[in-house]
Amino acid sequence: MTDLLAGLPAVPESRVAVRVRPDTLKWVRRGHPWIWEDSITSVSDPNAAPGSLAVIFSDKGRFVAIGLWDPQSPIRVRVLHAGDPHTIDDAHWQRIVVDAAAARSGLDATGTTGWRWIHGEADGTGGLVVDRYDTTAVMKIYSTAWFPHLRSLIAAVAADPRIGCIVLRFARAVIADATAIGLDDGMVVVGEQPSGPVLFSEYGLVFEADPINGQKTGHFLDQRDNRQRVGQWSTNKTVLDVFSCTGGFSVHAAAQGARQVHSVDLARPAIETARRNMAHNIDRTSATVHRTTVGDAFEVMADLAARREEYDVIVVDPPSFASRARDRDRALRAYRKLSELALDLLVDGGRLVQASCSSRVTEDDLVDVVAAAVRDRGAVLSDQAVWGHAVDHPVTFREGQYLNAVSTLVHQRR
Using 50, 70 and 90 to split pLDDT, how confident is the model at 322? Predict the structure, then answer.
């Protein structure tokens, strides 16, 4: 283990006894992973250090659950285990890592070496995720409560013989705390620092990730299955990929024989990566004309409509417009506007795929937005489906359902 981790705090020896409201107790027993600050009725040590083990007791003093004390977050306890009494030690973290890898073991057989290894709450690590890009693992931390336990988790991940490099990434909310103990965003704690982008495969297609400086952990893995679905509908079609980022949907469409793919994103570096991802798959994508545009999606789509361009398949996959509850109404208006702009560009009988990546915008919300836009145009929907997360992003509680994508054919009545 590298001495770069010397500044990490030790696991606190003392435990925190926590009692919560009866309704919260019910949800914890059912497996909900969060205990909010205002749900707590008493705590033995409110000043306990982040990462202290918090034991939740019933009114009768019986063990209910154990989690991480997180005094800097409204989610005051992140539940690690509920049910019978349980020890949180090195062996616990080793089981978490091994079990999570086993649950995703079928992905390698699909020609996929880039996947979410540990999906936060769904795998018993709320506030921490691990993504695998071939031989590189990227661990992203969203809470300082994980700092005392990182050594054990890093050792458990490093024990996997497929992994030669481990990178730490930190959310903005904790990066100052990480810096204060000598940790840097993008630091390599096991193995050698990658000399450039890391290549990995997704259903046999080659993509690159930037685990040091890229968004999130270097790539968006949750749309993988949906990218494959779009590809299957793109043979001999024209495809518009809006908010294309690094070209995931674009590459899958081209690999399945799309005549033309148009990738649109505001970030020039993302578009440049999309071009390289196309080039990584030249044997599969060379027959496709790949067009790219750097610009604001709303403005670009309006301009394309003014020039009377049309597409057979349109994918609209924006970033989260509702990171906070108060943003929800504004987000729905933005999704509605995107639907309207897409309909102006869609051929009669074309397919619209529109996604949302916020748990505050539900599946029903997104379906209603698309349906309302189509209805106001006098168009008709058919073959509608709603997609969610890829298999390596399991949903185990309501708030964990953040990704929804509506796919539908639209029969225009212009």
Answer: low
